[in-house]
């Protein structure tokens, strides 16, 4: 069990990045419309986040500096502030969506209106951030979130036509019924979801919460190599389930019940119970990750004391910022807005903020003052620069595609 | 290039007598940690002592020194321009700095500094009042 | 004087020819000894003919990676040189004037600063 807990940070980061409420729905939507035709984007995204999270984790372990501190130091206060504003907004929208998602998952479990669950969810998120130790937080939500593996199990139990699925996956390109622009919109959305900046902020700050040092570099790598591919796998499994059950019947995904329909069909009540636990843990974990991320980014930009390893009174502004964030999220939800719609927009906006986040990481990972002998090797630099180009392409095309396709309608 | 790298040989090989830093590259925007490694602020700006605007500098006069780390309102000035009155400045005297590396380390505790007043205020009057705020996480 | 007022100032020769912008200020911790650190003195200013802002330092350090970025940065900040503080005649708001006969020095940082011990 202890070995499993050692990778809890990677698993939790990946869960928040790949299977939070927005991704759960987006993956199901993609599966129900494109089959596995966009699976290649998930693969590209997984490699990208592995490369950069590995760099960010290494920087945190060797130099003790978290990603946003480096962003301000390398980009200067103006660009750093622009990144902060964008990241904070995205985090806020995502927290709103996740708290809404927790409420929706609880509705799925209890059939009680989600409006009642929102304050419960918000309070739950806050109290865990306030009192629970970081290790406890990541171990519990990470492990419970693994219940989502039931999607992969369900996919097998549905006895799909593997040849047909493989055909969809290996034939990248929009199917006849869908416009090209919409295909690429979802490609950018999936890529943005896989490489969301808050994953790196959380992972590197989490590395410091866990007090990783140079001796923990192997552990850092393990976290990355276990967590993110697992997240990608879950993403693909969700899309696969939707491809097998929803696509043939042309069922539109509009709520969580359609997302879990394939699992219920495959494994009945037991599987449904697993998936609900998994979704609950994943959305709750994602809510924790994004709330903490908003606290980390603000504190690291302004130089405030931060960290869950400190008592709240010794990291006062850090906790105050997060409390305010949660309150604003509840306020937004109280207006009755659909949290899932909120995430679909926030995913696209996060694609725009990607270059300002990843460029500094690549620069610092090469800086001997910070890294000593642990600077990037040649191969890592090549891959890093290739991805920088991909990231720039995604960032530049995200908003135009959003407008042209009407958010993938 | 006009006046190509016209280095005076004796000066070029002069070994620096201490740590050499570039202010913007190595000091600005870095974290300031106190004696116990608790973050205090970021270096928003630096105050240099010994430069008089508009005055001719006599050859051989002593060089200017770094006198303080500026924070607080100075960040807004740096981002958008303008100057805050001296009374509003929050400064950490440079003589309190013990080490400059990837972070700037002070030799004193953050609790003793002016720069920590917002943190102390929020801690005492807001966070400290919520139950559990003063306890370690469990 | 505040550092950020000095950064970005125009650097001119004694006869008024514009040389570039003040990119950075070189410091040395080698002044009068004090309780913790010796006083930090200004030893020079870095002037760049083509750019105004450099936070990565590729033009002053031996860093080579990542390759494309290092090359791009070195090109953007090409021609950066150091002028010793002794060669500074006046500092006005937004402008720094050098003495006649000032010397343009190599901007590279000494080895000890460039590597983590």
Uncertain residue ranges of chain A: none
Largest interface: B-C, 55 and 52 residues
CATH topology of chain A, by name, is Hydantoin permease
Q: Helix amount of chain A, in percent?
A: over 70%
Helix/strand order of chain A? HHHHHHHHHHHHHHHHH
N→C terminal distance of chain A: 44 Å
How large is the share of residues in beta strands of chain A? under 5%
- Overall pLDDT level of chain A: 89
Number of strands of chain A: 0
Largest sheet of chain C: 6 strands, mixed
Mean pLDDT of chain C: 87
- How many domains comprise the coordinates of chain C? 1
CATH level 1 name of chain C: Mainly Beta
Global outline of chain A:
globular
Q: SSE string of chain C, helix = H, strand = E? A: HEEEHEEEH
The second-level CATH architecture of chain A is Orthogonal Bundle
Q: Could you name the key traits of this structure?
A:
heterotrimer, B: 138 residues, alpha+beta, SH3 type barrels, 4-stranded mixed β-sheet, 3-stranded antiparallel β-sheet, disordered N terminus, C: 117 residues, 6-stranded mixed β-sheet, 15% helix, globular
